[in-house]
UniProtKB/TrEMBL annotation, chain A:
NDH-1 shuttles electrons from NADH, via FMN and iron-sulfur (Fe-S) centers, to quinones in the respiratory chain. The immediate electron acceptor for the enzyme in this species is believed to be a menaquinone. Couples the redox reaction to proton translocation (for every two electrons transferred, four hydrogen ions are translocated across the cytoplasmic membrane), and thus conserves the redox energy in a proton gradient. Belongs to the complex I subunit 2 family. It catalyses: a quinone + NADH + 5 H(+)(in) = a quinol + NAD(+) + 4 H(+)(out). This is NADH-quinone oxidoreductase subunit N. It comes from Fibrisoma montanum. Keywords: Cell membrane, Membrane, NAD, Quinone, Translocase, Transmembrane, Transmembrane helix, Transport. NDH-1 is composed of 14 different subunits. Subunits NuoA, H, J, K, L, M, N constitute the membrane sector of the complex. Its EC number is 7.1.1.-. It is found in: Cell membrane; Endomembrane system; Membrane.
UniProtKB/TrEMBL annotation, chain B:
GO terms for biological process: ATP synthesis coupled electron transport; electron transport coupled proton transport. It is found in: Endomembrane system; Membrane. This is NADH-quinone oxidoreductase subunit L. Residues 75-125 form the NADH-Ubiquinone oxidoreductase (complex I) chain 5 N-terminal domain. InterPro entries: NADHpl_OxRdtase_5_subgr, ND/Mrp_TM, NU5C-like, Proton_antipo_N. The keyword ATP-binding does not apply. Keywords: Membrane, Transmembrane, Transmembrane helix. It is a multi-pass membrane protein. GO terms for cellular component: endomembrane system; membrane.
Amino acid sequence: MFPIVLLSVFGILLLFLGFLKSRAILLPAALLFLLVSLAVNFIDWNKTYLYFNGMLLSDNLSMVFTAIVLGSAFMVVALSGSFMEDESAQPAEYYGILLFSLVGALMMIGFENLIMLFVGVEILSVAMYVLTGSDKRNLRSNEAALKYFLMGAFTTGIMLFGMALLYGATGSFTLGGIRAYAVNPQVGLSLLFYVGLLMLLIGLLFKVSAAPFHFWTPDVYDGAPTLFTAFMSTVVKTAGFAALFRLLSISFSGVYTFWWTILAIITTLTLVAGNITAVYQNSFKRMMAYSSISHAGYLLIGLAALGQQTKQAIVFYSLAYSVATIAAFGVLLLVARQRNAETITSGGSSSESFDAFNGLARQNPLLGFAMAVSMLSLAGIPLTAGFWGKFYMFSTAVERGQIWLLVVAVLMSAVGIYYYFRVIIAMYFREGATAPIRVAPFYRYVLVVATLLTIGLGIAPGLLEGLF
Amino acid sequence: MQTDLLCALIPLFPLIGFIINGFGFRRIPKSLAGAIATVAVLASFLTSCFLFGAFLGNANLTSTAGPLKAVLFDWISVGDLDISFSFQIDQLSLLMLLVVTGVGSLIHLYSIGYMKHDEGFGKFMAFLNLFVFFMLLLVMGSNYVIMFIGWEGVGLCSYLLIGFWNTNTNYNNAARKAFVMNRIGDLGFLLGIFWIINLFGTTEYTDVFKQATSLAIGDPEILAITLLLFVGAMGKSAQIPLYTWLPDAMAGPTPVSALIHAATMVTAGIYMVVRSNVLYTLSPLTLEIIGGIAIATALLAASIGLLQNDIKKVLAYSTVSQLGYMFLGLSVTAYTAGMFHVITHAFFKALLFLGAGSVIHAMSDEQDIRNMGGLRKSLPVTFITFLIGTIAISGLPPFAGFFSKDEILAHVFEHNKVLWALGVLGSALTSFYMFRLLFLTFFGEFRGTEEQRHHLHESPATMTAPLVFLAILSAAGGVLNLPGGGWLSDFMAPLFEGSRQVNPEAFAESTIDHSTEYILMAVSAGVALISGIIAYVMYVSRGAVPAPETTERSMPEQVVYNKYYVDEFYEAIIVRPIRGLGDALYSFGEFIIDGVVNGVAWLVRAGSNQLRLLQNGSIGFYVFAMVLSIVAIIALRFFVRF
């Protein structure tokens, strides 16, 4: 609860700071605000409270998700130093919008009432539409924003439709009320309830880019400025899965048999569409977009096999995935900027292709290593956090006896190795004339911390257990 | 808790030393690198001493209360299996800690002098530190998995250090041989651990042994587990049939031979058996097998040692043979005696290797004893300490080796008279080849080149100081466990509570009376003395020198000189068939496998090429696809029954 209030205030403050002549204070201020919000998040640790007339819940799980979201946001913002050099950028507004969007994300994590979920999703989405189009002079960025907005608006309609149907069937917007109706029906569950459930689910699945509602993802991720792509693929995804988990585990766990096959089919589609399509991509950024779809698929396994271990699996997977993704985008930002500077005359748009990484490790061992570790983690190689994330996810499926889902997931993660390792091969085994890239000290810390976290959680995954 | 911190510190010091030297060896000056590495191990030693003192002072712990455990963090928890990263401090781990860090510190100190002129000095020190780190994990871990980490880690360091001078192909081959042979053993060890998990549901020592005490003697599963674990011990502790890597491992720098291939790593197998003593006591058949292998190894290696001319090879075969003695002791449930021999052997074998290193250093890297002789005048300190080591290993009273070996033999006598007689025979051989080595090296006339004679010098103080320390320990180490109820027996007694419980007969009070015991002592000491005198007559009085490589040898001599052709035998029955199989699979199997792999990759790419066309950028299509999907989902859910 405290972070929500603080972030709202801080967002307004940041907009005012934008009036100052010097931009130098913006980045430290944004980082400080995020740190403060992260710190106050833990005030209610080990206590469970309902806030705002029972609209929001604060318990250990929601605080852990909040910490992951705020931590990811902190790392993304820490990588945003390049705004200061870009004349046309509006950093105060970017940071302000980011903080507001986090308020939406936190609402999605802690909602107790479907209205709150809707408000949270919309706050987050509208902020993302704006940030996607923030590179105003770039056509691709504009196109992406428009696409995102149109499809997002369309899905909002469906989601709202679902909520209305649920209300019609149950007479309640609260999670507990819906649960009570689903568990203990007076006269059997009405058709409205089922259709409403599916539509609400579809709305949320769109937000986490599950197939076949993923079509916006590659275009939007590719078109948006890289930094905001990193934000979207970590914060938005984590918040979306926190919301899905809350909804399914609390309200709809009573009708598990109704929805799990649908979810399992969607999981399979997502895994196949994400992984297989990623193979053919030549742009690293676009590959990461498909990779993010495929990781949504892995996370969905835990929901399709909802059980005792799901909570832990989703938390661990979100954390592992977020950390690795941020490190990967962080390196991409530097490499792409360097390549842009080099090809400014030739005007090639290959700055984000796999070839841009050729020979990177020789001149920039730190960047190469950070990228390699995050690729290994995303591919799920042991001794990285990603391995344990996948392990926990897969064991939920085993617990439920959904072996065929497991087989698909394992095959698809084998496909994943193909495209993740292309980057490592490019960095370590290809020749390339990369000059050493200057990395600002703070930027370096973020990459080092992300890498250490990935390896640390990979060696001792038990460290996170028992936290919640 | 404070002890938790102390426990964590012990392996942490060498790890820090490794990190500093390992990353900075290009920049850190040699003197500093040596100091860092030595201080790191010394700090571990002092911490261990402190812990040992605290342990002795705490009466509760030394009696029957369970061992001290320091849980650092929960490491793996899968289903019902919880494996924590934790250390166990009890009598056994404390003894090993003191030996590893104590002897380790001395050898680090020695290395500063010995490796001074080597280019890779910093790297060498880093590897040594890393080795100590893993060895400490091995002996401190409170479950088999931590032990396995250490087990693999020391194997890795052994590989790295044997092949330290990696420009020499022979040395690299020796390193590879050691690694591969150890892997064979490790496989057994790993299977043993899996079986333990399967049977007991845990790998924690205390839990496993507590559950094991309720099993019957001769349980077939325990038989399988102990045999598999012993396969691991065969590899690491160089027993037949996996011993041939150890003599080749002498390719590494001499301090490595002293630390890894004499004092510490190769005794890991004995440590593991003593650690699992409850399981082994439960399986008398395994113990008999161990006894057979042990005595065969001891005799075989000792007989090869008789004719070797390389100073380090003689010591290597002697190590193999002494390891056999340790296992011999374990095989008659004389666990304390086995550990006692581990400790004394660490002292005198480290001393002998370091002494050999000092000789090699003085002789400008000459290792053939045929080219030495008369060195006692130029290397007085080395000579005296080497003499003490030789007496100690030969089992002459009152030096350390006499007491430990005698205790093993006394237990063996009680159990099996034939084994005892063979053991005494081995002891005679040991005494002979050790005195032969001593006499050929230090007595008689100098047989090297003029240049070598000119260069002869006593080693610097960093090298002689460890020799003196180790010589004192080798001379006086016997007081740890004097015959008739020594300190060590009392100290280690709580470790064997479980074994005593499951098989009281094996731990019954000794039935032999004192007079028999004294006769046994006299016999083994006498035999050793006679062998020594024979060696004196042959190599000093008559001044015999082993024949050069080219001379014709009689048939039996030829066989022994060529180490019974064991390497050639392995080459013929194992290496070549495997290589043949590999060639065969390579020639046609590769074609099939490549075809399958490439085919799958082609399929995936083709699928990818088709799928990506869906992403056509048209928003109309996207929305249409979504609506279609929603309709499909709802239709699927309500109109299709599943």
